[in-house]
Write a structure and sequence with these properties.
- This protein is mostly helical.
- It is about 45% helix and about 5% strand.
- Strand 3 and strand 4 form a beta hairpin.
- Helix 7 packs parallel to helix 9.
- The protein has a two-stranded antiparallel ribbon. The protein has a two-stranded antiparallel sheet with strand order 3-4.
């Protein structure tokens, strides 16, 4: 059985060349991948947190890995329901959190290792979300330098153009026929949530004012959608 490093390097190489991998399921039979997965997650804070069963990282063994592989090989493996708890938020409310069993965590990590090895080489350098050693902080480091030498995040012009095109046709804002049958509150809320997502994503951008054009296009599209719903003109609204 090949070691985990060799397996992942082969998968990574195929990912770089955008070649298909046909034996992904068979890779789940390799115990070395489970040992690597264990080394990655046993130090996590939640490794000792129980799911719906009492198993944790503390009771892991080679025999358990062999049992998991056997269940997967003969298609007997079944995901276990998560244990649902509510954790407090800063605003005093709570949010639900699902805690999987340790066995499920281990298998999930093995699958993540395989998929990450294949797809990571295919991502663009400008992509920073949910990638190893990347995040919003590394995204800031690729921004353009301003006159005073401080690195700042800038919104690409293509982003505004791309999003505006969703609400335009032939250079003009259009109504959205798929929303005509919704109530006014739902229609307005859809536009607000979409625009809010754009703003929040680029809230740290130095040129966030560029979203002014997108705001006007979306507002015009919203008004035309409401006008179409009530069979009237935007002026009469």
């Amino acid at each position: 059985m090949r070691n985990a490093k060799t397996v992942l390097s082969v998968i990574e190489d195929r990912g770089k060349r955008v070649l298909p991998i046909d034996d992904v399921y068979r890779q789940l039979f390799n115990p070395n991948l489970y040992l690597l997965a264990y080394s990655r997650i046993y130090k996590n804070d939640g490794a000792m947190t129980q799911g719906v069963t009492k198993e944790t990282a503390d009771g892991m063994s080679l025999n358990k890995i062999e049992n998991i592989i056997e269940d997967i090989r003969y298609e007997r493996f079944r995901w276990t329901p998560v244990r649902r708890i509510n954790i407090p938020k800063k605003n005093g409310k709570t949010r639900p959190l699902g805690i999987p069993t340790w066995k499920d965590k281990l298998v999930q990590e093995v699958i993540r290792l395989i998929l990450e090895a294949y797809y990571e080489p295919q991502f663009k350098d400008s992509s920073h979300g949910f990638r190893p050693k990347r995040g919003c902080h590394t995204a800031l480091t690729i921004g353009k330098r301003s006159i005073n030498g401080i690195i700042g995040l800038r919104m690409p012009a293509s982003f505004v153009k791309e999003k505006c095109s969703l609400y335009m046709r032939n250079g003009k804002p259009i109504h959205r026929p798929e929303l005509i049958n919704d109530d006014d509150f739902t229609i307005v809320n859809i536009y607000q949530s979409e625009y809010r997502g754009y703003v929040q994503f680029y809230s740290l951008a130095q040129n966030i004012a560029w979203l002014g054009k997108l705001h006007w296009v979306m507002w015009s599209s919203l008004m035309k959608t409401l006008a179409c719903k009530y069979k009237t003109s935007v002026a009469e609204l």
